[in-house]
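Working notes for the structural subgroup meeting. M.R. asked for a predicted model of this chain before we commit to crystallization trials. I am recording the input and output together here so anyone reviewing the notebook later can reproduce the run.

Input as submitted:
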Amino acid sequence: ARIVTKANFTTVGGINLSAPLITVDQATIFARSVNEFQGGAITLTGNTLTISGASEILSSTEQSTGQGGAITLAASDRVSVSSGSIIGSSTLAAAEGPAGPIAITANNLIALSGAGTGLFSESFGSGDGGTITVWANQVQITEGAIISAKSTGSGTAGSVTIEGTQSPAQSVLINGSGSGVFTDTQGAGAGGNIRIDTSQSTTLTNGAAVSASSTGTMDGAGDAGMVTIHAGNTFFMQNSSVTTQATKSGGGQIEINAANLFRLVNSKVSSSVLDGTGGGGNITIDPNLVVLQNSQILARAIQGNGGNITIFTPLFLADSSSLVSASSQFGLNGTVTIQSPTSNLSGSLGTLSSKPSQTQSLVTQRCAALANGQASSFVVAGREQLPAEPGGWLTSPLALDGIDADLFRAGTAAENTSHLAPRTSGLLANDRVSLRRLTQAGFLIANFADSGATGCHS
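Returned structure, recorded in token form:
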């Protein structure tokens, strides 16, 4: 069976759709929770689930103490959400109950792509935001798609977890400007935590971000959430960031583990407090190799104390434009601890200098082509022969190109010239023999057939 819907469903009960292939295109599926009742659940189950065309799958808690309905998408192969489609759970300002949880499961792949596309959990009142859980072997968040758990009231923001169906996932890729995983609290509620768990690699590229923040401007705003990334073998970031940030309260902690490589290129890992007495969060990094290229690891505060940075690694390498800092503008600086037996190379990586050859010293390809592709434009003078005297002459390897390769005939000019035999026969006294001077070993020498018509000479 196959279910394709462009219709709208609204219910205070539950919605359950099951088929091998389910496509939701330009449609809305909406479940509400009113009064004291728990909201109805939305469940889509199949082999492949495709949500596209700016579709919406929503669960809302309205004027109720009951929990919002759960949203569950489960596929034996893959789930695709694209083209500005939204899967969202919310609790409104008048509601006291928590928003419903969102759980997306696929044995193979979960792919979120496109600007405006995302999984959203929001709390607008005293109710807590719902949790978002993504379970798949591979997870891809690209082209501006996001996962967001947010609280604007006194409720706590929901948490976000990305891992495999059997935990951990094989790989997580977040790619593209605006793409990312975000938690934020704008009121008194604490920020949500973010956890990513992979066995092979976690990769952020081209403007991607993982961020847990507390952006409330009033005293008493909640602390930023914690970011934990177990990257498996490799953690790699390029032009991207992992941050926790608090405006008034404490910064969240960041923990990143990788069995082999932790590498940042033009990227930042940062825990900071912009304005307030809260301290910067601690940062812990634990791989076999740390490489920083024009990148930063920061735990900073303004009024409060800077956070602590701890790096455990056998080898720590950072170029001169990279920075590891735990500072406070007005409070106490935090500590930076790099426990690495090989860290004395830090700051020593740089661009190798080069001295290009002068163009006038290079022979054109035109002359080398006359040898019918049998030789390169340049050869290194060999040591297999020596001239009779220093600075003397040796025959060019192509000097006799095209002449018969029989033994010399008696009476020719080349007779008794032992270093030419048995390379050719039929060489007459008036024939021209092209020679080259043996130069110092290592010098580049032009090497091509002699031709007076073209002006090419060995």
